[in-house]
Amino acid sequence: MLEINNIDVHYGVIHALKGVSLKVNEGEIVVLIGANGAGKTTTLRTISGLKMPTGGTVLLNGADITNMSAQQRVKMGLSHVPEGRRIFAGLTVLENLELGAYLRRDKHEISKDLDMVYQRFPILRERRRQMAGTLSGGEQQMLAIGRALMSRPNILFLDEPSMGLAPLLVQEIFNIIQDINKAGTTVLLVEQNANMALQIADRAYVMETGSIVISGTGSELMKSDDIKKAYLGG
Predict the structure, then answer these.
(1) Apex 204 CA angle, 5 and 67, nearest 5
(2) For the domain bounded by 2-231, which CATH number is listed?
(3) Which pLDDT tens digit goes with each residue over 99-125?
(4) Sign of the C-alpha dihedral computed for residues 110, 186, 171 and 140 taken in this order
(5) Burial (CB count within 10 angstroms: exposed 0-12, middle 13-18, buried 19+), residue 64
(6) Number of other residues whose CB lies within 10 A of the CB of residue 167
(7) pTM for this one?
């Protein structure tokens, strides 16, 4: 479904991504782990069209989207839940969700998808008239995910969805990710909680200083002594 080949990204003179290549097959949960500053968020932003690469290609379902705008990529079925949630705090929960469907014109189907989001996140239905900025951290994360689902994506990017959440909420968010995947949405996940992420991953990549250094199945990486020492506290 998604393939990036030898992507380079620069921020001025800083070479942030150095020949990064990865692929995500339809129906998979693929996880990208690594230390802070390794280039994980830049990778997602580049695939989403928020940062243009200085080299390499991005393919989505075989189509070259390297130079497409972010909104064109959303129309093609890609949706991104950014690090820090980035909800619109001054708008209501409902208004945030409606903005997720901004590029769509199929009003009946949008209404159905809104009901689906409310079924998945009942608290959002209860809080739909509430200002999004007054939600708890966990509720804001659910809203960010729900907003992304309103674009009806084929592939969903999640950047640090468990950041700052209590352990019970972390487990709930990972359960939600698995449920979304089982319902037919492919997932590319960036996550600091490597242990939880690798448990649900079909495949995983490890980034260090802007490069992919290790890849394999989630279970293979969990058994790796190097990964245990570096990321799993082993």
Answers:
(1) 30
(2) 3.40.50.300
(3) 999 988 888 889 999 999 999 999 999
(4) negative
(5) exposed
(6) 10
(7) 0.91
